[in-house]
Specification:
This protein is of the alpha/beta class. 36% of the residues lie in helices and 22% in strands. 44% of the residues are buried. Bound molecules: adenosine-5'-triphosphate (ATP).
């Protein structure tokens, strides 16, 4: 598998999977995302970190065409995010609450998702069965989703997000609710998908997942990108002695930015402005 961008697109194949330029979203007085400019090369894993309310979901909703930016622009898989029809065939999205129907069985939900994506039946059946097996869901695949645990629902949500082999997958907390074995399967699956040239935009509070998988990390705070680097360089910025971790780096860059914002008279949480 090698997810390709739209071959009819004039965009060169070397174009980044995601490129944003001054991407901004205001909700009334609240500045949820401010002037976000970054690029994610194809086939890489981008760890998107930030404290609660930092603007991660808002950014992902803009990049997946679900929310319109107030200003700025972005291209995903070579297409402007203002062109929903062009972007959506090339992306998969696992939001915080996976969009699944309680009255369907797991297998029916995935068949339904494959149908929406116009996947050929033979190909989708094979892929659904292989992903169900990988996530240990085969024996429960014909039970209704209403009877699933949180982790089982999460597995269906993730399978649904990557079923059509999108060029870019946006995953919000993919390991949420998963037991340690399932969380490991998830990490291995994400690594494999990236090896197969899928670009993964990964938002999570589990820093060890980002440390394991991300080629590059962006830290959002108060809607602004306050640090961006590869995990090793980011860790080396932490001044906490010999055992420098991504957690130390995260706490430092978000604290520095809080201090600067406080000095500038800006609340760390824009919702309280
Ligand atoms: N629909 C909305 N209407 C008004 N304000 C919103 C809306 N969605 C988000 N916000 C505000 O925008 C800011 C960023 O929220 P967002 O959900 O993007 O953060 P997040 O980084 O995803 O947080 P978390 O880690 O807690 O999920 C917050 O101040 C939030 O209150």
């Amino acid at each position: 598998m090698a997810p390709e961008f739209d071959t009819a697109s004039p965009t060169p194949k070397t174009a980044p999977a995601i490129a944003t330029d001054g991407l901004t979203k205001h909700y009334g007085e609240t500045s949820a995302v401010s002037d976000l400019t970054f690029e994610v090369p194809r086939g890489t894993v981008y760890g998107f970190l930030g404290p609660n309310g930092a603007g991660k979901t808002t950014t992902m909703r803009m990049l997946t065409t679900l929310t319109k930016p107030t200003s700025g622009s972005a291209r995903v898989a070579g297409h402007p995010i203002t062109d929903r029809e062009a972007v959506t065939p090339h992306i998969g999205y696992l939001p915080e609450e996976p969009p699944i129907y309680d009255e369907l069985t797991g297998r029916e939900q995935l068949e339904y998702a494959a149908g929406l994506r116009d996947l050929p039946e033979a190909e989708s059946t094979e892929r659904i069965e292989s992903l169900l097996a990988r996530f240990d869901l085969t024996t429960d695949a014909d039970k209704r989703i209403s009877d699933y645990s949180k982790g089982m629902r999460q597995k269906v949500g993730v399978i649904q997000a990557v079923l059509h082999e999108p060029a870019v997958a946006f995953l919000d907390e993919p390991t949420s609710g998963l037991d340690p074995r399932a969380a490991r399967t998830m990490r291995e699956t994400i690594a494999e998908l990236a090896d197969q040239q899928m670009t993964i935009f990964l938002s999570t509070h589990i820093l060890s997942v980002v440390d394991d998988l991300a080629d590059r990390v962006g830290v959002l705070h108060g809607g602004e990108l306050v640090a961006e680097d590869d995990p090793e360089t980011l860790k080396s910025r932490a001044e906490t002695g010999e055992t420098r971790s991504l957690e130390d780096a995260f706490l430092e860059v978000t604290k520095e930015s809080s201090d600067e914002r406080r000095e500038a008279g800006v609340s760390a949480d824009p919702s309280f402005e």
